[in-house]
Structure formats: structure tokens, C-alpha cells
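Hi team,

Filling in the usual template for the complex we talked about on Friday. All components are listed, including any nucleic acid strands or ligand strings, so the model treats them as one assembly.

SUBMITTER: L.P.
PURPOSE: interface mapping
COMPONENTS: two
RESIDUES: 1322
SEQUENCES:
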Amino acid sequence: MNPDILKERKSASFDVETLTNVLDGGPEKTRRRREIESMVLNDPDFQEEDPSFLSRSERYDQAVRKSAQMIQKLREYGIADPEEIYHYKKCVHPDRPEPLDLHLGMFLPTLLNQATPEQMDRYFMPAWNLEIIGTYAQTEMGHGTHLRGLETTATYDPATQEFVLNSPTISSIKWWPGGLGKTSNHAIVLAQLYTQGNCHGLHAFIVPLRDMKTHLPLPGVVVGDIGPKFGFNEVDNGYLKLENIRIPRDNMLMKFAKVAPDGTYAKPPSSKLTYGTMVFIRSMIVGESSRALSKACTIAIRYSSVRHQSEIRPGEPEPQILDYQTQQYKLFPLLATAYAFHFVGQYMRETYHRITGDINDGDFSELPELHALSAGLKAFTTWEANSAIEVCRMSCGGHGYSCSSALPDIYVQFTPTCTYEGENTVMMLQTARYLVKSYRQAKAGQQLSGIVSYLNEAQHRRVQPQPVAARPTVVDINDLASLVEVYKLRAAILVDLAAKSIQQELQRRKSQEDAWNNSAIDLVRASDAHCHYVVVKLFADKLRDISDTAVHSVMSTLALLYALHGITKNSGDFLQAGLLNVPQVLQTSVRIKELLSQLRPNAVALVDAFDHNDKKLNSVLGRYDGNVYENMFEWARRSPLNATEVHESFYKYLKPLRSKL
Amino acid sequence: MNPDILKERKSASFDVETLTNVLDGGPEKTRRRREIESMVLNDPDFQEEDPSFLSRSERYDQAVRKSAQMIQKLREYGIADPEEIYHYKKCVHPDRPEPLDLHLGMFLPTLLNQATPEQMDRYFMPAWNLEIIGTYAQTEMGHGTHLRGLETTATYDPATQEFVLNSPTISSIKWWPGGLGKTSNHAIVLAQLYTQGNCHGLHAFIVPLRDMKTHLPLPGVVVGDIGPKFGFNEVDNGYLKLENIRIPRDNMLMKFAKVAPDGTYAKPPSSKLTYGTMVFIRSMIVGESSRALSKACTIAIRYSSVRHQSEIRPGEPEPQILDYQTQQYKLFPLLATAYAFHFVGQYMRETYHRITGDINDGDFSELPELHALSAGLKAFTTWEANSAIEVCRMSCGGHGYSCSSALPDIYVQFTPTCTYEGENTVMMLQTARYLVKSYRQAKAGQQLSGIVSYLNEAQHRRVQPQPVAARPTVVDINDLASLVEVYKLRAAILVDLAAKSIQQELQRRKSQEDAWNNSAIDLVRASDAHCHYVVVKLFADKLRDISDTAVHSVMSTLALLYALHGITKNSGDFLQAGLLNVPQVLQTSVRIKELLSQLRPNAVALVDAFDHNDKKLNSVLGRYDGNVYENMFEWARRSPLNATEVHESFYKYLKPLRSKL
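RESULT (copied from the run log):
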């Protein structure tokens, strides 16, 4: 063990294991998670070559191998609880996406949710046993977020009782679905349904893509890999062009909407039935934001505790770089963010599960708020984590650029969350739509409940934007409850500002739609403030559940840092609204410095508590033992370019060049 | 040509070619640049396989091939002007680093600057003719920015008149130098010089690494590639461990410092002699920030003009995504930033050349200011461009993640600029040191000149931070000169704040060094504000040189957008200092929206003016003709994973799995 990191661990004021239990949701959960992780980590079948040293085809190959083994072992061991499967999978493919993700996460669940009993009989067991490997083909080359724009057609032919599927244009080619390129032999294809001369919008169809025996593409199916990407090297994201593909009528998923043999269309009873999955996935992404950021923080903070550089005091040995105020200022607010997002993710999952019962009973009353919240928080947390991971990487100096640090991989694996499952700006605007709607309801005298209740008219009237210092400020910047309040008022004011912008546009005779678009900057800003408020509030709420005094104390410091750091980063908002005055903003900066010093002795222990196993983290810089340099040297020597002492390019180009110059 | 992008070009209010000439520095410069570019682009010897489809070893191989051809052809064509070589090189390796970068950019220049005439005789021609290929080995595994911390030793042995070089620890292994791993057979090694029992600090030594004939590493030389990185796949960044390597006395570069045969050390006449190169390279990086960002903007804005998505008005066709206010708000300020940084880069290069004469005459008086400015601006522009490139990428939705967009490559090639040639936070603190020193001089009654003259006491007294609205504000947010003024005052106030923080720490009996470290957040913030002021000022200054009315008009709009956008992003600073009041901040937001609308018809023309050739840009999304989708499909079909219809992993893992479940 590196003596520096040992010293850091001794300086912690709290028990790491207790905090890990808080994060996991109890000691028993921690125990079981570790048990599952060790099943994978000690299993020689899951040993791998470092993907950084492999070509893309080799990475895909290795991932398919491990996925196949994973499926087999999960069945063998009888691991069936979704949370346990999650832990197992996250260890087999350490936070990397894999070729079967869409089969397991979309194809099977869509069958479960949208197939008729007859369809279940026909498809489920073959899919469960991986004879059928499926994907979910929705996005097209020219169409993403806006589902109505999708162009793929499924035209019913009553003569043969078949649907004829087509990709009528280049832009209609299905593009991006994971596992579509090489892995899947079936896809659930989303297409515009045409029957009896009418279009009935998007419906889902089971389309065979490849021969079950030879795995060769079927006639009329043009399928392949979309090529190299920023990350996602393990996944064969694919394209699919359908040329007059005929499938039987009962390949349409007909649990809800139906097409009769004669082509008569019957529409689904409710459009909200597929709503829940989307909310669930976005809630999960909030948790992933925390997970990815917590890994980046673990690496950056451990490394900063063993890296020595430059000098603070002349003549003394080079200090640990974690002693530089600028380094603390870069990393500790991000550490606080990782914790904040973890608790938000916990809250979202719990809330989702709480209201799932209601949804199954047909009670959708709480869904709109959760939907709006999951959209905005998905965007808020992924954007924050995305840039934060890069700050962590760059805080490691040159070595952060080496793949041995794992930081480049964490970034490229995480960054797509800003775009998939709903592009972030679109998500922010969805949340804004809910906020503006609620705002108008409140204005119309309706009493709002839930998280938007701060928009209620009575409260609202008190918080008009007004010149700074015109209102007596009673905020205590050392009191978290007071800060939650001030974040709430900021959100209220920014929602008000956005709504007024729309109003002004309407008064200039703009249409509703143009007024909305011309206020979009303000709307995104309002959503952002709303989400920020929710995060601060949930972090503060969580403190109540923490009984251990030492852990409570350090978490309170982190929560305070999170809240105050957000204020300095957005001080214009708070000043502009008169929520804080200038001396308070100056005090905030001073207080932040104190909090950084306070957190300094606990920094390593705080990342230890995330409990990222070394093998999973796979980072030379983030090693638990802090022995960075010798292991970096060892890693480098395994670089494929070192397989020979002299690279062939010397003989081919450099040596011949001498005689030519 | 895509009709959308054609329409965009017709809507431009200015002549693109005229603006391109402004950027190049005159029509003749544009003509010659294009002439050189076409020499490369039409040369079949420089055709290449898309690097995205290659393994790392293949990428390195292709780069060596092209570098060798480049050297040969540059000599053949007699291209010798540094600017022309730059254009040629930037076309051969489109903005990618390459294996000979350090030979050409560091090894040869260091010989020129630091070798004695005898050493020149011995080394220069062999190096010029690539018999000797060299690199510059400074950074060690455990030591980067802080040169005094480097551990490699060169101990003089008068008995044999040799230096003995050693890497005494793991952390002393040379790490990162480009071209060190496989390409170079020599290195200029920076090592601590020991002679007659004393250490005389870092000196440069020419060390042979590989046999000139066989290219095999020499005895005692442990050399290799440091392994895969975030980008830089074409370069063999290397490690070097020296085990009692003996080199003759005259392998030390002795133009300045000297070791006599008996071991007597003679120190160099001035320490500032190597200062200029650093300033030059950092100035160049400012230009690279603009270059990389202008490419990302070109891609994002062209694509946004042909991509249609969602709806603004129901029932109407999907609009170009460039019509969304949020998209304009993402991209147009970045476009303005790319222009701003281009002009700053121009200014830095011109200033450097202007004072080079003085430096050669031994007059260093202007160097400290330029040194401070180049450090801070290097950090300011690379940080800004770094995050801006990612905003551009994510503004392209899913397709921004595809390597066919070129955006992932632009990012990974650019992001190291934040760390190399001086880690950005360290750079900001260097600038801060100059600012605080100047501030103290001004306080002591000295009259400052140059760019820091705003710190002069008289002016300074007027701009103490004070409650908002307590001072009458006379800023006109529509007047660029007025905004330059307000940026200047902000910088003055933040320098004052940082200096006072140091003062307060000293009053708490902290040492100078601890006071500095405890004020580092404020110091970085002051530097940032200083650089921001300089950028706004130089952009405004540049407008005076633009005679074409139409170009002047659109550049003025961009400059105004740049300045106002910076205000909204940092509104807290301006409010806190009482430089703007709340209504002005609100007006700024409104004004920005107007500017976005104003720029909308010129957006495509403004990126066209950067004149990035399609072949160099190598981006399907950024194609000049806007024909994105068909070319994306064609590109994807060339993906190596599509070489076979069925990937071998199907036979190896997926098919056998069926019988096991």
C-alpha cells in the first residue's frame, strides 16, 4: 500500500463501511452485492484481455463470448432478481454496453408488455433461450426523437394476410439499434401502419432478419454495422433497410392495437401504457450519472493523493496535488455531485416502484409529474456528469489521457446518455412544458400539489424578480434548509420569467408555437433551475435518514458544498432575483474554501465508500493501493506496439527514405 | 447540392470569399494556401484509408508512410517557408499529430538553438536527412509541469570524459514524448547535471537510443510505446529508461552552459534564452483552438441546416434544426468564439514576431507581458474550445457520436492542448502571478503600461466592488466599446479581490506561499476575467481592420454576441461588481435572442468562410454539399465489421449457446 494513501485513510473522520451501507441501502444489500461481484470477478471464464489493446472486431468478439457465458451462468446459479442481475451484468461487462443489451432490455420486455398470449407462446421461450436474438429498431437515419416523423411503412395486404415492410427512403433506414448489425436474427421494428388506405401511426412488428440456421440475412433484408463510434466499441449498432419484406399478420404485436384479417384497425385503449418504461429507463440513467461520476472521482481523488508535483512552500518536498486549493475546488464539488445524484437516483427508483402499483391499477395521476421530473433530471444529471468526468480526467494531468487511467473509457461510455432515451435539450423542454402548464394552473387559481407546489399563486406573488437588495434577505448560507428554500425561489422566478417571455411573444401576435420556440432559452433555464432545486432538496432530505453521526456530519458538509457551489456558479440568477445580496455571495466563496479544507482529510475515504472494486474500475491511477507508477509501466509494456522491438514501418518507409533525401 | 444548404448560401448578406481573405490575411495568402492544399489533396501518394477503420498499429504505419512522403516532397517542391510547411503538413495529416512531430518541431529547433557549431556540424545534416530521427524527452512518469522535480541524472565522469545517464527510480522513467516509442533513434534528454559533486539543474543531452542500422534499442536503453490513449493514435508516445548510459562529454548541448573536460561547470549567461519558444508554442495553440472549434462549428452548423426534426408548428413539415432557438443558442456563440480566437491567435503571432527582433537584440522588456498573456490565453482558449467542441458534437444528436461525423476525432485530437505545453490551471496561475505583481506595482505608485494598464491605481480606485445599483451605470449593452470597458472593469475588480484575499491570508499569519495557495481559486478567476477581457478587446479591435461593409457588419454582430453571451454566462460577476444592473442583465438576454435571429441567415456562410476543404474535414455531417444520409450509408458499409455477413463470434459463442440453455 502506498504510504500516502494509507495516511489518507487514517485521517478519515467516519467509518467507510457505514457509508457504503447507506449507499447500497443497508448492510445486507452491500453483502449480497459483493457476493455477486465476487462470483464474476473470481470466475476464470470472465477473464479478459484489456479492451484498450484489442481491435474493434476483437472487442465485439470478447463481449459476445462474455455475454453468452453470462446468460448461461445466470441460469445455472438461478440469479433472477433484477437488481442482482444488474450487479452481475455490471461486473461481467464493467459498465460497458454489450451486444445483448437490447435483446435483454428491450426485445424481451416489449414481448412481455405488448405481445398477445399466442405471440408469447410462439416467441418468448425461443427468445429466452437465445434461439431468437432480437433488438428494438425504432430510430432511423433521418429521425430520432420525433417519433411521428419515422418513415418505415408496414402496409397490410388482406389478400395474403401479410404486412409488407419497406424503407421507402435513405433517411428511413433504421440506424443505431444496438445488436442490430451482427448479433440479432430478429427485430421489433417500429413502422407506420397502413391498412385500408389509412395510416394509423407507429406500431411494433416482429421481423425476422437472419436465417435461424446460417445467420445469413434473409432476402430483402439489408443489415450491417454502422461503423466505429465514440465508444460503444463492444456493440454492433446497426442499420436495417427493408425491401418489401412480407411478414404474417400476427407478427404485429397486438396486445393493444389490432388489425383484423380483413384489415380493419382497432386502436389501443390508452396511449399511456408504454409511458412507464420510458420513465423507468430515464430514472435509471440518473443513477448511472452518479455511478460514472463516482468512478471518475474515485480515480482522480486517489491519484491526487499519491501524485506529488511542484511546490507550495519552497524547499519542501513536492506536495500531494490534492493539497492544491485549485485541485480541491475542481474535485470536491464533483464528489458532492456524485453523492447528490446517487440519492436522486435512489429517490427516482423508489418513487417509480411506489407508483407502479397505481399505474397497473390504471391510476396515472402521479405519472405526469414523475414523467416531467425524470425527463429533466435525466438531462440535468447527464449533462453535469458528462462535463464533470472530463474535469476529473484533466485533473490527472497527462496520465488522464492514457487508457490505463480508464478515464477516457468512462467518458465515451457515458456521454451517449446525453442523447439517447431522449435528447437532453428536448428533455429539458418537456419538463418546461409541465412547469409552464402547472404555472398556468396555479395562476388560474388551482392548488398545485407535489414538487411543483412552489408555483402556487400565493407563494408565487412573493417572488417576482426585482432589483437586488430591494427585498430584505433572510437567507442563512450555512443552513441547508435555507438554501433549499432559495433554490426553490430561484426556480419559481425563472419559471415565471419563461412564462412571461411566452406571454410577450403572444402579445406580439406570434402563434403559440412560435412563442414557445422564441422562449426556449428561458424555458431550458427554468427547467434547469427546477431540477437543481430538486437535487438540492433530495440531498438535504436524505440527510434525515442517516443515523450514524460521523457519516451524517460528512454528508452534511458535502450537501452544503453542493448547494453553495451551485450558488457561486449561478450567482447571477440569485443576485438578479434579489434572493442573495452581494455580501452573501462573497461569503459563499469564503465558506466554500472552508468546506474544501474540512473535506480534505475525508476525500479518499469518501471515494472508498463508493466501493468500486479494482478489477471493475480497471484504472491504474485509481488503484486502491495507490501503487500507480510501477503498474503503469507494466501496463504500457503490454501495448500491442511493443510486440516487436522494431515496427515494420521502419523497414518500409523510414530506412528507404534515407537514400532518397 | 442539398437544396436546404443551397438556400442557406443564397441568404447570406456578405461575400464569403472576402471574409476568407480576412481570415487568411489577404487574397494572396488565400490563393497560396489553397494552392498548397491542392498539391496534397490531389496527390495520390497521400490517399489514405479512413483511420477510423484501422487498428492502432495500422494507423501508426499509415502516418509514418505519409510523413516520409511529406518530407521527400517538401524538399522536392522546395517548400521552405514555415507557414507554407504548416499548411502542407496540416493537409497531409489533417490536424492529426504524427510520428515525426517532435523530430521536426523540437529536435531540430533545439539543435539550432542550443548546439555549438561543432555539434551542428556533427548532428544537423544527419537529422535533416532523417538518418538521425530525434525526439525531446523531458516529461517523466512522476513529473510534468514542475521541471525542478525531474529525476533523470547525468553524472560527469572526468576519467573517461563521459556523462553517465540514469533513470534512478520508476517515476523518473521518461514518459509521453512523441515519437519516442518506435520512431526515434536519438533523443534530446533533459537531465539533472551532476559534476564535481554538485547538481547544476536541468541540461540537455543528445542520447543515441537505437542502432542506426538495425533500429534495435542500444544496451541499457529500455524504450517502448506507452500504450493506447484518448486520441493521438498516430503517435508512438514513448517511455525511456536509461541504465548507466555513457555518452561523450560533447553530447551535452553546450551553446550556453558548459562542462569542461575536467568537469568544471560554466553556467549559461541568461535563463531567458529558451523562454521565447514556449511563448511561441503557446501562441500557436491559441490559433489551434480557433481552428479546431471552427471545424466543429462547420460540421454542426452545416448539418443543422440539412437535418429536419420534430415540429415547431403542427402540421407543417419538420423544420431545419437550425431554426430552433435552443440550437442557435448552442451554436452561434461558439461560432463567435471561433472567430474571436482566430483574431486573438493572429494578434499573438504578430506580437511574437514583432518582439522577436527585440529578443534577439537582448531586449526582453516586452517578454514578461507576452509570456503571461500567452500562458493565460492558452488556458482560456483551449478550455473554452474543448467544451465547445463537445457541445457541437452533441448538437448533432446521435450522428455526432459516429466517427463518420469526424467530431469524436476533433475532440480527442484537441483535448490534450489543455494539458500539454503547460497544464491549464498552472498557466492561469502564472498569468495571475503577473497580474498580482502588476497590481502591487500600481499600488506602489508605478505607472503600468501595456495590457495591464487598467490596474493603475487611479483607475483602480474607481472600481471597488460595491453593492449592486449603488453606482450609476452608464454601460450601453449595444455598444461594443462600452462592453470592452465593462469587461476591463470586471478584470480589475477580480484582480483586486484576489490580491485582497492574499492580503487577508497574510494577516492571518499565513506564509506568502500558503496565502497564495489559499487564494488560488480567486487568482484563477482573476486570470480568466483578464483573458476574457483581452479576447473581447482584440475582437473589437479587429473590426477596425475590416473595410468591406457587409463583412464588417456581420463580424460586428458576432463580436457583440460574443461579448453579451459572456456577460450572461458570468452575470454574477457583473452584478456583484455593480457594473451592470438587473434590467441591463435582462435586456442582455433579450438582445442575444435578437442577435441569434440576425445571424441565422448568415450561419452557413460564416462557417463556409473558414474554408475547410471537404477532404481535410473528412466529415459526412459537415460535407459542403449537404448530402449527408447517402454518404453516411456508404461510409457505414465500409465498416470492418461488415467485411463478412456473419461474424465469427456467431459460430463460436451464440450458436453453441442454444444447446446449453
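MY TAKE: Chain B touches chain A through 152 residues (CB under 8 Å). The longest helix of chain B spans residues 325-360.

Thanks, L.
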